[in-house]
Every structure is written in C-alpha cells, then in structure tokens.
Amino acid sequence: MDLGLKNRHALVLASSRGLGLGVAEALAAEGGRVMLTGRDETALAEAAATINARGAGQADWLTVDLSAPDFATCLAAEVQERFGGVDILVNNTGGPKPGPAREITAADLLTQAQAMVASVIELTGLLLPGMCAQGWGRVLTIASSGVEQPIPNLSLSNTLRGALVGWNKTLATEVAGEGVTCNMLLPGRIHTARVDQLDGAAAERQGKPVEEVRAASRASIPAGRYGTVEEFGAVGAFLCSDPASYVTGSMMRCDGGMIRSV
C-alpha cells in the first residue's frame, strides 16, 4: 500500500528514542522528511544519521525542551524557517514519575501539565493554520493505554493524558472539513526504555525480581508478549497517511489486546 507520505514534512516530538523515534522511522521509510526533537543532542544526531543512511526519507533534528514556557513559539518558528511548514505533527511527550493519586501535589500537576498538555496544545494551534490552508494535515497524539484503562501507580500520567482525549476529539470535529485529521495512538506494553523503567519500579515496589514482574505483565496480554517499536511505528505511519483520510477523532490501540474495555 502506498501511504502517500513521500516528501511530506513531519515534526515528531520526543523522538530521539522510543515510541517517537519509532513513528519517525516509519514515516521516513515511506519517503517522508522528518524533524526529530528532544533534549539529547547526541541521541538525536545518531538517530538522524541512521535514518539518512537508509536512504528512503530524510531526517533533521532540533534540541527542544517541552517544559520551557516559550517551547511552542520557538519550535514553530524554527520549523517554519528550516522546513517551510509542517504536514504532519506527531505529539509525543515523556511520562511523569510513578505514584498514587492521593499523593499528587499541585506543584507536580502544574509542572507536568506544562510539558505534557499545554505545550502540545499550543504547538498544535500554531501549526494548524498551515495545514488547513493547504487542505491536508495530520495531527497524531501519542498517549497511553491509561486513558482507557487507568494504570495503577501512574496517576499523573492517567490524569494528564486523559485531558488530551477531550481536546483531541473536540479539535478533530473543528478541522475535519479542512482536510486535517486528529487521532490518538495508545500504546500498551511496547518494549522501550520507559517500560523497562516502569517494570523496574514495579519490581521494587512489590519486592519481586524484575523478570517475575515482566512475566506477569506478559501473561496479562492476550498476544503473550510486549510489542515492538517497529509495530507501533507502523500503526502511527498509517494514521498519518493518505489512506487514513477518513479516520479522525479516533483513539487507536496498539496493545496486543491488553486493554479489556470494549
């Protein structure tokens, strides 16, 4: 299937590694031009070099900090100058520290909300006019399975990513008639460094070996295994594609059947 992504310009947040990089690699494999972003300059440069060596699409990179108050305005201006506009925006952020809901503080909530919610919404608002003007655009927001089935001990993530669900659905209805789709992609247990971190935290909390925790996690997934970043990236690329032009306002799961809700 031709996804119609050749020479499309894609800005992918938090894409030096993990899920963001997986989506960026999948877009580039379809001939897209991707702008990688993150805080780790070395990791970004290495990721871009790997993508460019494959020869399908092209990759460049920018160092950014999603928690900075001027993040959105600075990034939008820089991308406009270097890219000449954006066809695809992949919203992705790191996850907050684990912890129970009854221990959330106002300070933690506001700090994380800036990076995980406010920055995403502001950047999207700045880039949307260009997509609407050309009659084609894709906004893909990576969230978490926790927005459909709250994950124990990830209360901040469940809370803040849940806020993006209502925003995405509302935005999708506003711009659908202008050729722009807005969807969310929900990872289950995709094997990344973040999942390793969470498994380690769970093992410490439960007083068990980490492999025992992982075995129990795999047993809870109908597919019987963790997903790969490549599998996740492929779903993301499809949602950003021409053939997915009638899919909007949706939440797509990539979870091996883990989420038990209908």
Summarize this entry quickly.
The chain is of the alpha/beta class. Helices cover 47% and strands 15% of the residues.
Attribute tags:
alpha/beta; 262 residues; seven-stranded parallel sheet; 7 strands; 15% strand; 8 helices; 2 domains
Tell me about this structure.
- This protein has helices spanning 18-29, 41-54, 71-83, 106-134, 155-175, 193-206, 210-219, 229-239, and strands at residues 9-12, 33-38, 58-63, 88-91, 137-142, 180-187, 251-254.
- It is of the alpha/beta class and 262 residues long.
- It folds into 2 domains: 9-188 and 228-253, 3-Layer(aba) Sandwich (Rossmann fold); 190-226, no CATH class.
- Strands 3-2-1-4-5-6-7 form a 7-stranded parallel sheet, with helices on both faces.
- The model has no long low-confidence stretch (mean pLDDT 95).
Average pLDDT confidence is 95
Number of strands: 7
Proportion of β residues?
A: 5-15%
Helix content: 40-55%
Which architecture of the largest domain does the CATH hierarchy give at level 2? 3-Layer(aba) Sandwich
The CATH class of the largest domain is Alpha Beta
Q: Reading side by side through the largest sheet, how are the strands ordered?
A: 3-2-1-4-5-6-7
